[in-house]
Specification:
This protein is α/β, with parallel strands linked by helices and 441 residues long. It has 2 domains: 345 residues, Divalent-metal-dependent TIM barrel enzymes (TIM Barrel, Alpha-Beta Barrel), CATH 3.20.20; 60 residues, no CATH class. The structure holds D-xylose and nickel (II) ion (NI) (2 copies). One nickel (II) ion binds next to helix 9.
Length: 441
């Protein structure tokens, strides 16, 4: 394979909204300061290894369509090395500050745990060198606990304790690798932590196993001095019929039940939110409210397809509503926007990977500008504050302070008269959002 792989593309530059150059940013201007932070620091973009470099374009009916020679040529280690060279060429040309990986994206699985661990260590050494040379940092690492048939009945929730123990060893190894690479977070997505049928499943037992597993992850984090955040990525189903980490609310209840609410936060994926029947913005607001907002897997679903299609984000409106909740929550700390997104199967030109990411980054940058402008104008928050203003009056404050009983309010109701409704003004507020999207420059 000849280097460079993306030989028709140079470093992507910001050229502004009037540019017609499809290989330039029109909105993402990394150094531009918006609401007190550079766009680079607000958005903290990451590119993911698995969809971009490990997936060959296959789907359940068809074989690989994409030009990814390292996936089928030669010795597995040499192929993994070639893949990493291409990945870092891509990150550098795209100017993304972060990347994300699964252990088995960067290294081939060997014949034993020991072989696999050695492969991972070798590739982590190489990755450390690439990070050093390019300045690209690791947003998060994660272990692939759902691909191999040993995990078909789950990893931590497996009925066989040997599988639980294997998964624990694999996660420890991957956490050590993430720590060595200076990862800002460590992610756990429970791809097969769920069930197909209750006929063969002991739910209580499986939840207790998962609770113990996550506690071991937190203990290990402290034992090795890893300062990144531990994140759980909720998803309602797929590949399992029912997954325990269904949505943010389910994860929050789980964390509280197992004593983890101060140690673990969430990585919210757009398409997982919509599969759970929620808006993306709802999941962020739920996490911010619970104090567990961590990071985002930025992608988009399809209105008519009921699975995780992982398109690149294209809707400025959807992302503006998401960014609004992120900014209201104070913005990212350890987290960022990881493009857990993949090309369509027919996008087989090498530079399609750039077009996809450029579109996603510009969409998010426009969303940031619009959300920041909504917050700066203060109109929306003023309206919302007014809507609840009664709660600052004597009746509201005394009820919340516990100065009333149901019986007391029963007595009051006889003389109080009918409450006066006010307009919720939803359409007015939707127009306000539209105006900020139109004008944000
Ligand atoms: C799958 C998940 C996965 C995680 C990482 O739907 O989104 O890609 O982000 O294991
Ligand atoms: Ni994801
Ligand atoms: Ni996903």
């Amino acid at each position: 394979m000849d280097a460079p792989f993306f030989n028709t593309v140079d470093r992507i530059e910001f050229e502004g909204p009037e540019s017609d150059n499809p290989l330039a940013f029109r909105w993402y201007d990394a150094d531009r300061v918006v609401a007190g932070r550079s766009m680079r620091d607000h958005l903290r973009f990451a590119s993911c290894y698995w969809h971009s470099f490990n997936w060959n374009g296959s789907d359940i009916f068809g074989d690989g369509s994409l030009d990814r020679p390292w996936l089928h040529d030669g010795d597995p280690i040499a192929a993994a090395e070639a893949k990493m060279a291409v990945a870092f060429e891509f990150f550098e040309k795209l100017t993304v500050p972060f990347w994300c990986f699964h252990d088995l994206d960067i290294a081939p699985e060997g014949h034993s745990f020991k072989d696999t661990a050695a492969n991972i260590d070798h590739m982590v050494d190489l990755a450390a060198g690439y990070q050093e040379r390019t300045g690209v940092e690791l947003l998060w690492g994660t272990a692939k606990l759902f691909g191999h048939p040993r995990f078909m009945a789950g990893a931590a929730t497996n009925p066989d304790p040997e599988v639980f123990a294997y998964a624990a060893g694999q996660v420890a190894h991957c956490m050590n690798a993430t720590h060595r690479l200076g990862g800002h977070n460590y992610v756990l997505w429970g791809g097969r932590e769920g069930y197909e049928t209750l006929l063969n499943t002991d739910m209580k037992r499986e939840l207790d196993q998962l609770g113990r597993f996550f506690n071991m992850v937190v203990e290990h984090k402290h034992a090795i001095g890893f300062e990144g955040m531990i994140l759980i990525e909720p998803k309602p189903f797929e590949p399992t019929k029912h997954q325990y980490d269904y949505d943010v609310a389910a994860v929050h209840a789980f964390l509280q039940r197992y004593g983890l609410a101060d140690e673990v936060k969430v990585n919210i994926e757009v398409n997982h939110a919509t599969l759970a029947g929620h808006d993306f913005a709802h999941e962020i607001a739920a996490a911010v409210t619970a104090g567990i907002f961590g990071s985002i897997d930025a992608n988009a679903g399809d209105d008519r397809l009921g699975w995780d299609v992982d398109r690149f984000p294209v809707s400025v409106e959807q992302m503006t509503l998401g960014m609004l909740e992120i900014l209201r929550g104070g913005g990212f700390t350890s987290g960022g926007l990881n493009f857990d997104a993949k090309l369509r199967r027919q996008s087989i030109a090498r530079d399609d990977l750039f077009h996809a990411h450029i579109g996603g980054m510009d969409t998010m940058a426009r969303a940031l500008l619009a959300a920041a402008s909504i917050i700066e104008s203060g109109e929306l928050d003023r309206f919302r504050d007014d809507r609840y203003s009664g709660w600052s009056e004597p009746l509201g404050t005394s009820m919340l302070a516990g100065d009333h009983t149901l019986a007391g309010l029963h007595e009051r109701a006889f003389g109080a008269g009918e409450p006066m409704p006010i307009s919720g003004r939803q359409e007015h507020l939707e127009n306000l959002v539209a105006r900020h999207i139109e004008r944000a420059r």
